Amino acid sequence: MSLRDTARAAPTLLRVSMAEALAYRAEFLVWMLTSTLPLVMLGLWTSVAAEAPFAGYQSTDFVAYYLATLIVRNLSGNWVFWHINEEIRTGALSLRLLRPIHPFVAYASTHLASVPLRGLIALPFAAVLLYSSASDRMVTDPRLLAVFVAAVAGAWLLTFLLLATIGCLAFFIEKSMAVFDVYAGMFAVMSGYLLPLPLLPAWVGRVAAVAPFRFMLSLPVETILGRHTPVVAVELLAAQWLYIAGAAVVASLVWRRGVARYEAYGS
Q: For a pLDDT cut of 90, what percent of the chain falls above it?
C-alpha cells in the first residue's frame, strides 16, 4: 500500500482502535495504574524538601516536576512491545502480514487511539494540581510551548520505535522480555522518570545526557518547566528527532529480517 493510501486509511484505523480501547477498558485501567509512580515520587521528594531545598529543588519544584512527568508519560507512553511479542509467539502475526497496511502503522494507530483516553483520566487531575500548586513554574513563552508540543510527539514516536524494536527481538530469541526488563530499568533512571536528571550521580548524569531515554520524557518536562532557553530547547529537539530517524532505521531493519525468519519457518 502506498503512503497516500495509508494516509487515507488512517482515520478508519484510528476509529477502530478507539473502539478496541473502549472495549478493553479494564486492561486499559490496569495500564493506567502502572503509570502513577510519579505521584509516589512526588510525595517522597516533597517530604524531603519540606525541611530545606534539596540540590536546589524546593518542594514546589518537585510538585511541578512530577506532575509534568505524569502528564508527559501519559501522553507519550505505549505498550507496543507486548503487542508485537504476543502476536509473534501466538502466530497471530501471520494474519496481520496478509493485510495491505504495514503492521507498524496498525500498531501505531492502536496505541495512538489510547492517548485521548489516558488524557481524559489523568490530565485534568494533574493539570488542576499543577496550576494550583506550581503554576509559576510553567512557561508561557510561545516558542517553548511549541517545542514542548513537538517534544511530546517526538517522545511518543521514539518510545514506540524503541519498544517495537525490542518486541521484534521475539523473532530471534525466546527471552525478549529480559531485554525489555533491562530497557525498563535504564529508562526509569535515565529518562528522569524516577528523579530529575540533575539529581543523578555525576557519571550517570553524563551518560543520561547523551542517551536516548532523556528524549523520551525529560526533554518535554524540562521544556514546559522552563529549564532550557528557546535556543537550547530547539537544539535538544533536533537531537531528539535525529534519534527518532536512527530508531526508525533500526526498527525497520530488525522487522524485515525478523519477518523473513518468521516466514522461512512457515508461520
A: 36
| Residues with Cβ within 8 Å of residue 156, at least 6 apart in sequence | 75, 76, 77, 78, 112, 115
HSE of 261, CA atoms in CB hemisphere, 13 A: 13
pLDDT in tens, 24-79: 554 555 555 556 667 667 666 677 666 666 667 777 888 888 888 888 888 888 88
214 exposure class (CB count in 10 Å sphere: 0-12, 13-18, 19+): buried
Distance CA 249, CA 170 (A): 18
Alpha helices by DSSP H, the chain: 3-23, 25-33, 37-51, 59-76, 80-90, 93-97, 103-134, 142-168, 176-190, 202-210, 218-224, 230-264
Name the DSSP class of 196: -
**Residue 158's CB: how many other CB atoms inside 10 A?**
24
Locate the domains of the chain by residue range: 3-264
Per-residue pLDDT of 159-214, as tens digits, reads: 999 999 999 999 998 888 889 999 999 999 999 998 899 888 889 989 999 999 99
| C-alpha distance across the termini of the chain, in Å | 22
| CA distances (Å), origin 264, targets 104, 177, 199, 259 | 21, 23, 49, 8
